[in-house]
TrEMBL record:
<feature type="transmembrane region" description="Helical">
    <location>
        <begin position="62"/>
        <end position="82"/>
    </location>
</feature>
<keyword id="KW-1133">Transmembrane helix</keyword>
<dbReference type="GO" id="GO:0016491">
    <property type="term" value="F:oxidoreductase activity"/>
</dbReference>
<keyword id="KW-0560">Oxidoreductase</keyword>
<dbReference type="Pfam" id="PF00507">
    <property type="entry name" value="Oxidored_q4"/>
</dbReference>
<keyword id="KW-0472">Membrane</keyword>
<keyword id="KW-0520">NAD</keyword>
<dbReference type="GO" id="GO:0030964">
    <property type="term" value="C:NADH dehydrogenase complex"/>
</dbReference>
<keyword id="KW-0813">Transport</keyword>
<protein>
    <recommendedName>
        <fullName>NADH-quinone oxidoreductase subunit</fullName>
        <ecNumber>7.1.1.-</ecNumber>
    </recommendedName>
</protein>
<dbReference type="GO" id="GO:0008137">
    <property type="term" value="F:NADH dehydrogenase (ubiquinone) activity"/>
</dbReference>
<dbReference type="InterPro" id="IPR038430">
    <property type="entry name" value="NDAH_ubi_oxred_su3_sf"/>
</dbReference>
<feature type="transmembrane region" description="Helical">
    <location>
        <begin position="6"/>
        <end position="32"/>
    </location>
</feature>
<feature type="transmembrane region" description="Helical">
    <location>
        <begin position="94"/>
        <end position="113"/>
    </location>
</feature>
<keyword id="KW-0812">Transmembrane</keyword>
<dbReference type="GO" id="GO:0048038">
    <property type="term" value="F:quinone binding"/>
</dbReference>
<dbReference type="GO" id="GO:0005886">
    <property type="term" value="C:plasma membrane"/>
</dbReference>
């Protein structure tokens, strides 16, 4: 099999990309200092030693709100290109598509509301 210049360039860039991505990982595994014990396994809380059960201080509500924010934030980002192209669209098709997209978002919000995701617990257990 004979390689052309394009195939050789693609192969070299593939090897270079793999070295660029995997090189620091392999290099850090080889030359990184290894320390066990002490404060290495402790959770980090602003540079102070944690009090009590530091692994169980945060409830799942924080993470659920963060994930919901990211999901709806990314969905709303799809509306920006639509709003730019909307004046150039012909007919009612663009309006029906945008209304369908927004109705799916509204149904998701109603579903999460009915499931009680937006109610904040008084005490995190």
């Amino acid at each position: 099999m004979v390689f052309t210049w394009l195939q050789l360039a693609i192969f070299l860039f593939l090897i270079g990309g793999l070295l660029f991505a995997g090189g620091p990982l392999i290099l850090s595994a080889i030359i990184a200092p290894r320390a066990k014990g002490g404060d290495i396994g402790m959770p980090y809380e602003c540079g102070m030693k944690p009090h009590g059960r530091a692994w169980n201080q945060f409830g799942i509500s924080y993470y659920v709100y963060a994930l919901l924010f990211l999901a709806f934030d990314v969905d709303v980002l799809y509306l920006f290109p639509v709003s730019v192209w909307y004046p150039h669209a012909n007919g009612v098709e663009a309006f029906i598509e945008v209304a369908g997209f927004l109705s799916i978002l509204a149904l998701a919000i109603i579903y999460f509301w009915k499931k009680g995701v937006f109610t904040w617990p008084r005490k995190i257990s």
